[in-house]
Amino acid sequence: MPRLTRPLSLPFVLALSLLYAPALFAQSRHFPVPPGLEGAVEFWKQIFTRYSFAEVVLFDPLDPGTIYGAVRAPDNEEGRALVEKERARIGADYDLADKDSRIRSQRGAKEHFAEGLRTSGRYIAEMKKIFRDEGVPEELTYLPLVESSFNIHARSGVGAVGMWQFMPDTGKKFLRIDGKVDERRDPMASTRAAARLLKQNHRLFESWPLAITAYNHGTEGIFRGVKAVESDNLVDLIRRYQSPTFGFASKNFYAEFLAVVEIATRRDLYFPFLRANEPVLLREVEVRRPASLPALLKPAAISHDEFFDWNPALDRDTKTIPAGYRVKLPARKIDAFVAAQRRAASAVNRKAIQPVKASTANAPTRRAPGKAKAAKRSVTRATAKGSALRNSQRSKTPATGARAAVKAPSLCSGFLIQCTF
Description:
By secondary structure, the protein is mostly helical. Helix content is 47%, strand content 8%. Strands 2-1-3 form a three-stranded antiparallel sheet, sandwiched between helices. Strand 1 and strand 2 (63-72) form a beta hairpin. Helix 6 (124-133) packs across helix 9. The longest helix has 26 residues, at 369-394. The chain is elongated.
């Protein structure tokens, strides 16, 4: 049976938030809660931590702190009919003439959010290091909780891909995206790209609320909004900027981000029994020349599934590792993989220098009797000259074979191992 509660006003929502004190107001100096956005932040915290996927929350989109109620409804036609019935009841009970613009529904995301938090354990430590290296606040590494719940294979209906949801045009400014590699699916490459894009946005707007909103809406759209309302205050944009493209998602992007930072940094309070996944620590081997994948995996004792779990930027049907790609592997697999690379490269070089078999084209030809002696004298002089030249070169350059030209890779320490073949 659907349930309807009294709408929660902003003061009441803020009073409830004191149960979690001082969490709401313990924001980083980089990411303040702008006055007027407190209700929206608290709304998203409840969506992510209180309401399950089976519940649909009905609220005022102009003031998300006002929650009219929630109804249990399956995600199907029957459930949608229940939600519409509840919407009509709320409109009548609260005398909302324009219920379409004052009543919005949002399905709860508690389970989905918890799974994202769990998955974040695989990547978050290395992501924070990347953001620190780029000079960007590390709290921004929680933005994928809004974008994708840390799903590296996420794909939106408009073509955004990966945990950071890069669109193709934006992604190509920072990442390799072609028919062989899509680094939007690579958790660390895309993280570095996101750090640089967010840093670029901050340089443009000198405001993290605008820079983060621009990550979702685009810089040009935010510049248009700032010009239209003659203010660089995000709350002014949310309340006054009218644009068909600046919708609910863009208006709430920063509030959602503040909510996820609060939850993620106080996980024990909101999800006391959640255990994050173990970190996945990988190192890199740069492949300078195309390499046959099957020829490397079997000698290195790496399964097909393992390899593509570690290298999601490659399509799973890839047979050849493209030139320039940095293979990701756990440290325990590096030596075996490099050895397999070395053997494969040596085999290719041996094949390349095999002598050409004699053919009829090299068979001696009959010469006219008068020319045979002259030809013999010419060959004798050339042979003597060549012998002298070889003796001269021998004293300057040590003899080297074809295999010596292939340098064995060195296993250096650090995150990146560059092996050239």
